[in-house]
Design brief:
about 150 residues, mainly alpha
């Protein structure tokens, strides 16, 4: 039995939600970018027809969707991936670091303090779910990973 499964499922579904929110910003346009905290500069770039916010947002959504796939694999929902342990540890580190650094005085030039703190808390919670799930599932994860 995979003891990390509940944690990994929360990590997976929260990643799905995060990815879909990024896609919603693209579909919803400038008002959605503003509502989700991207800032006025990004929203105005969308209004001007710049493709850069869309490209960046698609990239972020794709990365977060990839994290969901890794978590679903580790939870046993889909076929396991090669190097699943490495991927889980890397995702955990990235999310926890992003969460912790988001609470420091100097981080990304995020226009909204509320967005900065909210996104930091979300990343920290997601990172904790990935980390706890990884730790609890470690014995069940393949030791014979291919390189």
């Amino acid at each position: 039995m995979n003891a990390g499964r509940p944690w990994l499922l929360v990590a997976a579904w929260s990643s799905v939600a995060g990815s879909l929110l990024h896609v919603a910003a693209i579909v919803g346009g400038p008002d959605w970018y503003r509502f989700l905290g991207a800032g006025e500069r990004i929203a105005r770039a969308v209004e001007r027809g710049s493709s850069m916010p869309t490209i960046v947002t698609i990239g972020i959504a794709a990365i977060i969707a990839g994290w969901a796939i890794v978590a679903f694999c580790a939870a046993g929902v889909v076929k396991p991936l090669t190097l699943i342990r490495v991927a889980l540890v890397a995702i955990s580190v990235v999310l926890v670091a992003r969460g912790v650094l988001g609470f420091t005085p100097v981080f990304l030039p995020i226009p909204s303090m509320m967005f900065k703190l909210t996104s930091a808390a979300i990343c920290l919670l997601m990172g904790a779910c990935f980390a706890m799930g990884t730790w609890r599932a470690w014995p069940q994860l393949s030791l014979k990973e291919k390189f």
